[in-house]
């Protein structure tokens, strides 16, 4: 058995404030080629009422401590000791206020974990959330310690002409030996996880934003010199986000400067450090030749997300890490609303719901299930999950639906009024929402306490005589421990359609609170067709029986665009699931004629918004479909999926080709507006269907698109179609992709890898292994790792080969990666966690790999936690 020395589980119930707190931090970074010296000076105070002899505890991880002093006097070693591996204790008694100085040295060049101070290409940068600051210097590294920071950076002027930290630059100048310095002051008290510093040779673009109270804010975006021209979309997005937050929530930017820095090596998407956001290049750089339409939208959303954190996260922060969803659920909700306003509300909602269903539902239904406010963790970094972020955002959306737009705004205003400048809890947020609106949200807390996806069953009765409609809603939810959850408080938005498709009654929000609750509506003149859970008003699974005809009716008439799409998705799923069953029973698969009719109608309806039309034509994704199978059978599911897609394509080949051609845009000019994006989306969905046929004619169409594409969207679409159809055209397209686009661009190289790793072909495993051995593949870059490993894990049939070869291959890679970057390794291991959903041989194989990880000597606590939880 592996040694499990550092596996300490922390519990939410154990929160206690500290005896001392740091109120001011002064830092000096002296950056040298092979080592960085960090001198820190912490102004510390004992809390009122704390005992005088209380010891003072500081977090520190992997630091080489050179000296330690209090109020200028060196501390003898007898006064301090490491009471835990990463916890230094200075014994009392101590003065009620004092200055603690320390000098440590670190080696950013050797920091492959990408937490703390590290070097990405030639850029020195930091990542401190959640617990990275302790890898830079000794500190009370917890979010309820909020201090002001003054920072001085010294480095070689030629290799590091740009020196940045939080807040305003107060001084800069030259030093001896070709070195220079800059000092920064951040007037807003902040937790250590929001600290950042950057030193390197960076190019930049500059702009300004005038706030509504007419303050001019300098906006600067930095990247490696060769990428500077790809920063304009992010800058444009930032200005839109700044304006939107003023208009929507009355929130204005609070400093004179806002910086964004792009780095190649980053464990997550981006980080909201006060006035110095650090971004993964994949979430900020965009040009038509290197980024898809989806990338453009994602970048806009993430830029907004990090900017919005300035209020929801920075000005008001989390008391402890269990409260993470306080800032993340809320900020995701805010960025989703922003994107809905900037692009198309319905399209964005469809995309977001797809993520919840295909990623969060499986997490909630597996061994990693946790409430949006978890009760315990071993490695906090493992809890930056789709549950905390995405389900957390759905929970915020429910406040919005229950209280209405104005009510929600009142709650937000009160939240800031009460808590600006402090570190608070999810209960504080809920209380602000309740108090501002004079409502009782006690039961609503269950969304924070209970994991699992609720199932709501609806039964409708219509009494013709009495003109009375009654809706019986029953909710149930299995907790991860196997018990029944207590009923949730949730809004169910319902529309009522007349037989002619018009709205028979105004839409309503039903407030479901009981396990079983009847809603009676009087004066209903005819039996309506129900449009339930409009806009996915609660993160639940809805059960309601209806036939394909009613679904087709909703597809054609529902005024709620989301539910029109939803009806189509249900029709697709039914056919695919029926075919998977047929496949398992050794019977012939079939295509439902009603489905083909519905798809034809959607395809030929030129009055539709093209993006919505494209989504209406898109099959539910495999993860989504797997979620509603009792035992996941990847072979049957993938074959049924492919069969259904191919048969639709066979039936509608000419229409698909015509729609494809009708939506081609001229190659000599690129457009990025909503209409052009919609046209590309629709055209590429048609191409996807056609490629399922796999004949020479359609593959030639794909190849032509791949060779002549004037943007990354079209290249990726065509290359993905071809990667799934190995042969001459596929080889040509992928070679062209590599030589012309991917070879010299890290982010495009990632796309080239991801497309091939996701392709469902018999050679899938051999292909991923070859990609892994590609000379440009480096396991040190998280984007490259994700492109290969996460994409392969989504390749349902081949990752889950019954002989276990896919599982074994990925586990080999995880163990290799874990030695360098535990955070990313642990994330990838979650792809094996849901083994209980599969058939016996696959269960055994996934379990065996998890056990192998658990039994490996020296595995990180991040990765070990996933293995342990998965196997529990
Ligand atoms: N707060 C960031 C996400 C983030 C979280 C952890 C990180 O390192 C472990 C990095 C970034 C956000 O929500 O964007
Ligand atoms: Zn965030």
TrEMBL record:
Q: Where is the Peptidase M1 alanyl aminopeptidase Ig-like fold domain?
A: 452-545
Cofactor needs? Zn(2+)
* InterPro entries membership: Aminopeptidase_N-like_N, Aminopeptidase_N-like_N_sf, PepN_Ig-like_sf, Peptidase_M1, Peptidase_M1_dom, Peptidase_M1_pepN, Peptidase_M1_pepN_C, Peptidase_M1_pepN_C_sf
The UniProt record lists the Aminopeptidase N-like N-terminal domain at 111-194
Q: Which residues form the Peptidase M1 membrane alanine aminopeptidase domain?
A: 234-447
What Pfam families does this protein map onto? DUF3458 (PF11940), DUF3458_C (PF17432), Peptidase_M1 (PF01433), Peptidase_M1_N (PF17900)
Q: Which residues form a coiled coil?
A: none
Question: Zinc: is it a keyword of this entry?
Answer: yes
Q: Which GO terms describe its biological process?
A: proteolysis
| Keywords assigned | Aminopeptidase, Hydrolase, Metal-binding, Metalloprotease, Protease, Zinc
The UniProt record lists the Peptidase M1 alanyl aminopeptidase C-terminal domain at 548-872
Please report which protein family the annotation says this sequence is part of. Belongs to the peptidase M1 family.
Name of protein: Aminopeptidase N
